Batch of 2 targets.
Target 1
Amino acid sequence: MPRHAILKNYDSLKKEGKKSRYSENIAGILHSIYYECLDLLVTKPQEDLKSLVAGKNYFAFSNGNKLSRAINKDLFDPDIARWEALHRAIHSNDVNDFEADEITKILYSMAISFCASIDLLKDGDQKTPGTFFEYFIAFFFTWRVGVEPKSSIQILNIDGENTELKTDFVYNLGPNSRKFHMPIKTSTRERSIMLWAHQKLLDGVYGTERFMGTPVLLAETKRDKKKKEVVEICLPEQWRVYQLYIAKLKRIYYLDTPEVYKGLSNVFPPLIVRPFGEFFFEWSELTPS
Amino acid sequence: MPRHAILKNYDSLKKEGKKSRYSENIAGILHSIYYECLDLLVTKPQEDLKSLVAGKNYFAFSNGNKLSRAINKDLFDPDIARWEALHRAIHSNDVNDFEADEITKILYSMAISFCASIDLLKDGDQKTPGTFFEYFIAFFFTWRVGVEPKSSIQILNIDGENTELKTDFVYNLGPNSRKFHMPIKTSTRERSIMLWAHQKLLDGVYGTERFMGTPVLLAETKRDKKKKEVVEICLPEQWRVYQLYIAKLKRIYYLDTPEVYKGLSNVFPPLIVRPFGEFFFEWSELTPS
């Protein structure tokens, strides 16, 4: 079977992404992917899911006996013209005509379209959506902060060995300027402690909060295929404990933000969890506290 | 299809394990499981795997188009009489007639028999082997240290909330006595940083090294089904960095110890990785350094 156009574009994305995380080439590929995904999804039946998440409604696309992941109805707006407008704004380096929530919706629609398409095209493939999401978010983040990320850091070693540690993306805006540590994951589930552990590592090597931890996540939904139910897997009490005892994350951004995490900004230690669209406007005001 | 005898016994193990981690009932269930697993495996063809791990040889059991995980030929000695002898020694509270390596082999043979059986009976089930391994290792650890573990800790909270944090097993031998923090996993792969992060949490809540971190792992092998090859996924440089910048683990025990990790005891910071059989003899000498 010939490789589907979505996957061919995904291959190109990885190839281009290795050269630079932000480029017009990548914008073009993201455009093609979004177009192809909508083209696929529009032919597939939608099934309502029973949402056990207060205040959120979800559906899924189906394909024979395959069922895509849950899609948030309020956030999903598969209008490619919205992305084209955002793309023009990014290209002219001015997104001030956009609301943060609008950006979140556009990005959510693009990301979830790809993930849902892979759910329908492949069988239990988590890697492809995860890798796509990394390139996808890095494109916007890299544009916004204006420097390319690195994915490894040098560890000081007094015994002459050269230790290079593989990390999530780190963005260094220069001496005495902001530095970001940005893990990108489609969800954290029971692995969320890794976000804080990697921050603790960077704190140890470069000094506490020299890199601000700003992970970007897609969602924490989990859908039961048989029951057609959606839940969000959230561990707010555990997150508080991680923020207290392991390291401090500056922000946690989501495209589909779990409501229960929003409350964490009002307790000690404060942990601010926000829609990723907010980053586009607040990034230059973030400072290590 | 009626539930296989192995799985029925596994259900009983979970039920009994909820009452107590060490009991004669559990010993009896482990015996039945081992017996049933060997009974199943003896009827299945063995296939040699191409080992890319220096000094180790592996094979797998097959069942139609299913192939079990890799089994270390030198460690696998499916002789139920050896377990019976160990069981008698444990029952009479004296294992001094056993060598550490012999205990490691007996435990490896039991654990891998169960995992391989599940690989052949079910489809891509990682949860059942993982849960079994937890009950299995906890049985021996609990006998050895003489107290039952807990799997949650109380977090000090000055604002009157009651925060109970779910953890890996913690064993508290009493005031001014040893306390162990013991995650149990069949492998760590790219999630190994979680071992150190959980240790860091306990260090934060109760004081550095008040609980000694002594994780127990089965193996780090990964076999490619098509190529019939086995590799070990090891990250010694990353482990050093975790031990330097996140927390200190006292020991890491394996049933099939990766050779490359053994070298970590000779570098700074020392990290001692040993076969689990050693724990039976050194546990009472371990002290927070």
Note: Chain A has a mean pLDDT of 95.
Target 2
Amino acid sequence: MSFDRLIKNIREKQNPTVAGLDPKLDYIPGYIKEAAYEKYGKTLEGAAQALFEFNKGLIDALCDIVPAVKPQAAYYEMYGWYGVRTLEKTISYAKEKGMFVITDGKRNDIGTTMQAYAKAHLGTTEIEGETVSAFGADALTVNGYLGTDGVKPLLEICKNDDKGIFVLVKTSNPSSGELQDRILDDGNTVYRTMGNMCESWGESVMGESGYSGVGAVVGATYPEQLGELRKALPHTFFLVPGYGAQGGGAKDVAPAFDENGAGAVINSSRGIMCAWQKEGCEPTEYAAAARREAIRMRDEITGFIGEIK
Amino acid sequence: MSFDRLIKNIREKQNPTVAGLDPKLDYIPGYIKEAAYEKYGKTLEGAAQALFEFNKGLIDALCDIVPAVKPQAAYYEMYGWYGVRTLEKTISYAKEKGMFVITDGKRNDIGTTMQAYAKAHLGTTEIEGETVSAFGADALTVNGYLGTDGVKPLLEICKNDDKGIFVLVKTSNPSSGELQDRILDDGNTVYRTMGNMCESWGESVMGESGYSGVGAVVGATYPEQLGELRKALPHTFFLVPGYGAQGGGAKDVAPAFDENGAGAVINSSRGIMCAWQKEGCEPTEYAAAARREAIRMRDEITGFIGEIK
């Protein structure tokens, strides 16, 4: 269901991209870090505070032109629970600003444990009759190696709470083929098999857009597979990493879209976060530089796919 | 490397088991919850505090007879950053008490992102020259769907910091076969292929015990595959979930061990955490009941495999 909201955001902004919030200390302007360290020391707390300030600036600069953000959990967990608190605060802040939030956690487990992840990241947690939201993102990335048991608990929350998931199908990294490209005895690749599972999991959470609440992660670095999967999985919305720093260009991601210019959202993390370093502009201009890069990326991609209908 | 420490713990205690710390509020005695709610309210903070008190009691009761604990990240993330702080505190407390700590997070990603997870959960984080430990577990469960790029960043930390990983190979859930049992064009199953990858990843982090720092998760619910994999993967240490509540018995897990009674550690979560409810004893006796169940489980398993040499 959820991706209807994302698709609406994309259409309104005519921008099929998502800004990855994978903040490393190296990407953060010195003045932000120094202020945080002064208050909290060179500690996990200080670093987490710097991350949050950096994210806030990016969100403020992007929220009227970019439909979604994708914080990557690993970069927050690195700073312990202080970092995880920054993840929580970042999600809240982006939602307040009207952005669709995809937590990139690649979570996976089974049964009640997967249900716990689903409640944690997308749904709500009950405490003696009180209902509280823990992280409250709009969508979560998921690893489907464990099969249906690991996805079913999410589908209920997708349905009831209007949320979505993106299952890893064909990832953007060089070694993704070691398992994912292997051919099964029915002639299908592993990634295609996973893609087919997404189509079938999605049947129970179909949106008005024609795309279900079960999306797929397919890397920009494999344009041929992107095109193959777009045709084979007509109800599966794609989250496409690998644009920019990992080597994928606008031409490479074009096959991810359907004939209406819909069906996919393209992620850029370092390209946007580090635009100020690439430009060589003043550190205080980091958010403006991120906005310039987001506009450049938008225009480059929509130049290939045209109007998003 | 890491599993040498775990194996030493197992041998000293003659107990090849790990206590899963997957605390749900339903498992926690009322008096613990009430004390926490009184102080912090029926909030994420209150729930997280109850979880920690419950875990502490279990660790105190188990640490001289059980070699390891396995907190499952999902049950902490459910309570937001307060829950994650309880995970952090639980790991520290168990380590203080001499237990080997396996964080069950099934993390997976690529390149620098996987490195961030590796630093977060096993290694250390650098903040402007200061080195801090975020979660600091001894081992982490990992999903290998993304191939070598997703495992390599962990191997360095396994080597340098004497840590270990357990890669999902054949999981304990009913639908694990949907992908994992599929046959590839070379005649191998997907799970066997993943197992072979573990053997090869482990070559660079071989321990004195003959087992590498790259272990495998293989479910007790599939005893035949357990036996097959034990023979096929002589250097891969097994973490075996699915004993007890999921249906696996001591006879089912016996094939996980080598001829010395080594090579595997069997997890029980609900069996130990909920022993007081099953026994129907006083809630204040919950930790003593957990200990009784841990002893029963130990004796049942060692009854099958004999002395651990």
Note: Residues 286-305 of chain A form the longest helix (20 residues).
